[in-house]
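WARN no homologs supplied; continuing
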Amino acid sequence: MNREDFLKDIYKDFFGVETKTNLEKSESKKGSQEEMTNLFERIDNLYITIESKELLKKIIEYMRKYNEKLEKVYIPFRITIEANNDQIKKELQEILFESVKYFSYVKDNKRKDISLFKIEKEINFDSGFITLNDLDGLNLEDNKVKIKFFYSLEEYLKKDEQSIFVILGKKEEINNFFLGNESLKNKYFDLYINNINPDINDIYNYVLNKVEFDKVKLLDYITATYKNDTDYVEYQNDLIKYISFNKQLPKIKESKSIDEIFSSLNELVGLKKVKKVLYELVDVINLKEKAGKNLNISEINLHMVFLGNPGTGKTTIARIVSEILYNLGYIKENKLVEVSSKDLIAEYVGQTQSKTMSVIEKSLNGVLFIDDAYTLADKGNNSYNGEAIATLIQAMENYRDKLVVIFAGYTKEMQDFLNSNSGIVSRIGYTLEFDDYTTDELTTIFDNMMNKSGFVVKEDAISYLKEIIDENKDMKNFGNARFVRNIYEKTIVKHASNVKDKKNKIILKTITKNDINTENLILK
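OK structure emitted
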């Protein structure tokens, strides 16, 4: 009989009903029963499936029976815990570890938490209670390290050491971890504990128990904002803190329709190529949605590269892309996380992976916008940059349904960066080219800025501005709309000085050539 069949028989036996004799023996262990009651109550309060609660209780019950010599066969439990938040993972670990210690179920009571972001050169599992965390960290290692790790793990498991081995992670992490090692998973890790999220009423009652607030308004807010796949611990805590401090509910973000979003897009000056690509993207997404299974359209790769000089609207368009994808249901939050290389790369060895992963985790269910991304290029001896890129590439693959990454930067530098990195190029679905604005477009942008502030710009001011732009637009790193915004801000300051003795409202709101201010601008 092979190991798997043997374990099935054992599980079937101890998952069954205790005999009367065993019950009579166990009743004499009053302390054990009190401990079991406490542990079981904690299990009942967990947000895990009913089947998982029963399984967890039966595992602990078996520990007790083995400790009291009611069972003779030692089972080295190998457990996989699928959980979406750290609080659930922590509580499950504590319950198991306390059970292990109380019933002296392992060879020693040492506990070892192994993070795969920090794999030891010599891998050993020298504890009675072992947990494996940060499973995605293994994907950042080369094949030699992976092979060595899984070899060491299987060799350890073959020994049937008297220990408890727990693997923890989200569903995607666990699936990726065992990818290519399904036999290991099926042979040893055949006990699964799965967490669930509380429903709206659970969240409502928990929050109401912590803060005093209008019950109807609170329930309406939670009903409108809480989603079943939300990290409920973070959601609850953030909501409680906000109500406690502000004595009111957060404002609900209103989603815009596609027409409203594109209306905002069309109001932007220029960007013809970009607008065309975005319209086509929405058309493809809508076609796939309407056709359903009737058309064999592969999953749309939404990772993007934005190529363009400074001030050509890359960040503005990234925000619009976030709104479009949220409105169409491709991301679950209308969220744009803006970072640069310094937010991803750490100062010391071994910290870049975790720093980059922290940014990625904050960006999940939204859009991660990396500006000046070419600065991530691996420059010879700088292994930190390579770590950041490897982490990003793996995340782009693993979280395709939860994350959209946009790399942005100057056209030439970005092309050089992409040409040197096939890993990123192969994961890019869309490339948007942001042309420099023409002189007429830049003066229109300036005029629009002034109009929104209530000013009227005279023709002589526009003509003079065109001359300034033409004189400077060929300089290196010309700022495009940023250059114009600088002039706009300086012009308002100069205009205020020019009209300080005036009272006529028409004069106060009219911008003339004499107001155009280029002082301290970096000119050609």
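The mean pLDDT is 83.
OK
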